[in-house]
Amino acid sequence: MDVIFDFDFTLLPEESTVEVLKIALESDPQRSFLMQRLADIAPKALAGKASFAENLFMLQMARRVRRNHVQLYVERSKDRLLPVFHQLFADLKQANANIHIISGGYEEWIKPLAAEWGISPDNVTGNRFLWWRNNAIGLRPSPMWSSKKSKTFIVGELRKKKIINSPALIIGDGTADRDVWSRGAVRWCVIAEYFNKESLEDGEHCYKAATPEEMCQSVLQIVNSRTRESAHLAERVS
């Protein structure tokens, strides 16, 4: 079974892109002003809902990023994953589930953090920077900038490549995560409300989790139920 996690406000309690930009702006005399604009614009930009001017601002901010800023964020964050999440990943591996991360954050830090947490970087899909030596000079075009394509499109592409092969489960805090379920790209959804509550509507095979522990419990219940279902079908066929 394939289990897909969001990253920001699902595995870590923050918008990781904003946190990296905070590091990049630490010595900027306009830091307070720029951080306020980031707080207003970043959520819209990462959800594919920003205006042209707002996206241009995010591009200008991205050009402040250096590789050492990314490395510092990874170093600061690698030990911050909650113990219940470490246990969940171990339990999922024990159940032979394939763990994926699909995020509007950036692969430059999500992949090394995933590797620290025992998740294959090959199973991480996110946005990416364009680099010139140690400097970010732009953002690579991504379907996750579009609220019409977003993560649903990514899941479809991963299915075409046979990277995702099963009725899948997605866990995330935002509309983009829930849309993957509501558009039929996965069978199950767990809405993570513990770091960021958007009051999204649940439904059949879509559940809310008010705490990290509730999320882990719901995920394992779904995975174990699917495992039993598959075993029962195999017995009937044999």
Write the layout of secondary structure elements.
Layout: E1 2-5, H1 16-24, H2 31-46, H3 52-62, H4 67-77, H5 83-94, E2 98-106, H6 107-116, E3 124-127, E4 129-132, E5 135-139, H7 150-160, E6 169-172, H8 175-182, E7 188-192, E8 206-209, H9 212-237
Parallel strand pairs: 1-2, 1-6, 2-3, 6-7, 7-8
Antiparallel strand pairs: 4-5
Helix pairs in contact: 1-2, 1-4, 2-3, 4-6, 5-9, 7-8
Structure described in brief:
The protein is built from 9 helices and 8 strands. With 238 residues, the chain is of the alpha/beta class.
Structure report:
Pathway: Amino-acid biosynthesis; L-serine biosynthesis; L-serine from 3-phospho-D-glycerate: step 3/3. This is phosphoserine phosphatase. It catalyses: O-phospho-D-serine + H2O = D-serine + phosphate; O-phospho-L-serine + H2O = L-serine + phosphate. One of its GO terms (molecular function) is L-phosphoserine phosphatase activity. The chain has 9 helices and 8 strands. It is an alpha/beta fold. A 6-stranded parallel β-sheet has the order 3-2-1-6-7-8, with helices on both faces.
